Each structure stands twice: as C-alpha cells, then as structure tokens.
Inverse folding.
C-alpha cells in the first residue's frame, strides 16, 4: 500500500513537471524589462522568450512578434530552445513509461519485477529531464545577471529575471523529486521480491522435516540388517 501511494505521488509530480516544462518552453517571460536609472517607462513591459518577444502597453494591450531568424537570437536562447524542446519530449516519454509501470496498469502484466524496472527507467528519465530543464534556465539567468551588473551594457538593454525562469527552477525540482520517488519504489519492489524468494514458508519447512523423519537413511537400514 505504501509503494502504491509513492507511485501515485511520483506520477502526480511527473505530470506537474511535464506540464511545467511545456509551459516554460512556450512562455515569453524569460527576460523582462528592468526599470532602472532613466528607464522608468513603467507603462510598457518588454518580454523576451524562446520563440517571440512581446510588448505590453499599460496592462491593456499586448503585441507579440515571432522571431524572424534563429540566428538572430543570443547563444543562450538558441541552446535553451533546443534543450527545452528535448526536455518536453523526454518528460512526455517518462510520464507514459511511468503509467505503464504503475501497479494498476494491466497491459504490462502482473510481474512486479518487470514493473519495477519500468518504473526505474521512468524515474531515471524524469531525473535527466529535470537536469535538462535546469541547464537552460540557469544559463539564461546567469547571462541576465551578468549583463545587469555589466557597466558597459546600456541601461535600456538590461533585463531582469522573468517568471518563466522561476517556474523552470520549480519544474526542475519537481521532475527530480518525481524521478527519485520512482527510483525508491523500484528499489523497494526489488528488495521485497528478493526477500520473498529467499525465505521459505513455514509449511514447506515443516513438510520437509516430516519427510526426513519418516524416511530412514541407508545407513540406519543396514544396521537393522
């Protein structure tokens, strides 16, 4: 029962991580306007994402434009686009693999050992996905902070950390936590199965004892002769 609860918790965390990965990939709030110095035009917000940049005017109207060329992006955004697409695919594959390894799933049979290996695979993929999400989010955040404190960069070109980065960090932790739960469930199933096969039952031990007691040895028969 405890392992089934861990499976449900891991699946929920994996599903939340999958949705968060897709949301972070789509969201344009990776870089947002920094209102510092003379750049105090607060009724205009500039958002820069992996696929588009958006200009929001006075919290009423928003205009978005898709990037014309991939090569026009900075190197961190180019790499982040590819890594986040890969993370979205990996999170979906990990989630479907975890569903196949659940205790309530019948299409993969009733062998607990096989399902344990399936859950272990899903857990490892979830952890790898969390690391893949963590790399681009931290990379973009590092470049934003570096440019923010660089005196050579113009004030109008400086940006702040957007909401997508914070959601990305949370998503990475959720994915790693879900993967760790699945790995723990797989280890618990393997230990319980090995313990079950290593200890014989009381009935088998008692039956073998009576068989040995009833059948005398060859040496004892020779004594009676």
């Amino acid at each position: 029962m405890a392992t089934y609860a861990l499976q449900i918790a891991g699946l929920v965390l994996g599903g939340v991580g999958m949705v968060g990965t897709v949301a972070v990939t789509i969201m344009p709030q990776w870089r947002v306007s920094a209102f510092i110095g003379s750049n105090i035009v607060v009724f205009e917000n500039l958002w820069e994402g992996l696929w588009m940049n958006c200009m929001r005017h006075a919290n009423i109207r928003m205009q978005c434009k898709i990037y014309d060329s991939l090569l026009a992006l900075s190197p961190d955004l180019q790499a982040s686009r590819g890594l986040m697409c890969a993370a979205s695919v990996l999170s979906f594959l990990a989630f479907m693999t975890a569903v196949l390894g659940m205790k309530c799933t019948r299409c993969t049979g009733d062998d607990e050992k096989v399902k344990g290996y399936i859950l272990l695979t899903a857990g490892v993929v979830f952890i790898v996905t969390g690391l893949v999400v963590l790399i681009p989010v931290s990379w973009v955040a590092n470049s934003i902070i570096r440019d923010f404190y660089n005196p050579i960069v113009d004030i109008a070109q400086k940006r702040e950390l957007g909401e997508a980065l914070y959601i990305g960090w949370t998503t990475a932790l959720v994915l790693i936590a879900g993967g760790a739960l699945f790995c723990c469930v797989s280890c618990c199933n393997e230990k319980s199965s090995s313990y079950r096969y290593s200890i014989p039952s009381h009935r088998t031990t008692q039956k073998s004892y009576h068989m040995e007691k009833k059948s005398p040895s060859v040496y004892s028969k020779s004594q009676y002769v």
Summary: Residues 1-26+73-192 form a domain with the Butyryl-CoA Dehydrogenase, subunit A; domain 3 fold (CATH 1.20.140.150). The longest strand covers residues 52-57. The helical segments are 2-26, 75-100, 112-148, 163-198, 202-214, 218-224.
